[in-house]
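Regression test case RT-17, inverse folding.

Input:
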């Protein structure tokens, strides 16, 4: 028996590598790829896969937001998150979104394949370093007390806008990506600045980078 899988990552070289590894295993068949969350939803609608291997950091609709939509619209499709980050906020966000697995990008391909097998057969999988920390928190009775950060003040849509702005996109570019009005994006930026207590774009980007929403890849455009 083989399991159809869709691979979602915004880096083509990563998708190619994953596809090459999965091609060697008769248990899996890659039926589609996507480079962002919105495209992932479209591909899943066309292919109805058993599994989605989802990068957590995606432009536009990120992996957590896409997982929420996938679980809602495709209940028979199971999501395994692949992430560079093992912070509790990311892990708990993925679990609450409905992901059945969480694997670090630093993991071996053998572990990724094992996670996919476990989830495909109805189980759940967390990388060992993550599961160990969650068990410790559960034993201390503090699993539901993840420390809140400044970005908890933002709505999911505001987080989308912040991520794109921090990646260097202008307001016009963000509006095009999210299919919103230019004036709406300017309004989101002003609201985020007020919520986060900063007075300019640089302050927003600094908070985004510090919170791990994105990494500095260039100079953000100040166009309004």
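Golden output:
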């Amino acid at each position: 028996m083989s399991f159809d899988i869709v691979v979602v990552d915004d880096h083509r070289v990563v998708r190619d590598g994953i596809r090459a590894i999965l091609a060697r295993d008769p248990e899996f068949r890659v039926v589609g790829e996507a480079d962002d969350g919105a495209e992932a939803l479209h591909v899943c609608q066309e292919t109805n896969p058993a599994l989605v291997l989802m990068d957590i950091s995606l432009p536009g609709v990120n992996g957590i937001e896409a997982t929420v939509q996938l679980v809602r619209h495709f209940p028979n499709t199971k999501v395994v998150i692949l992430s560079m980050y093992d912070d509790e906020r990311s892990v708990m966000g993925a679990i609450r979104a409905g992901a059945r697995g969480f694997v670090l990008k630093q993991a071996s391909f053998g572990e990724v394949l094992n996670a996919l097998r476990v989830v495909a057969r109805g189980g759940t999988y967390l990388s060992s370093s993550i599961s160990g920390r969650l068990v410790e928190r559960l034993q201390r009775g503090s699993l539901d007390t993840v420390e809140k950060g400044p970005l908890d003040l933002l709505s999911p849509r505001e987080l989308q806008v912040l991520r794109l702005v921090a990646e260097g996109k202008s307001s016009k570019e963000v509006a095009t990506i999210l299919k919103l009005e230019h004036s709406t994006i300017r309004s989101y930026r002003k609201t985020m600045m007020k919520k986060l207590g900063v007075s300019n774009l640089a302050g927003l980007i600094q908070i985004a980078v510090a919170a791990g929403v994105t990494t500095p890849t260039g100079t953000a455009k100040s166009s309004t």
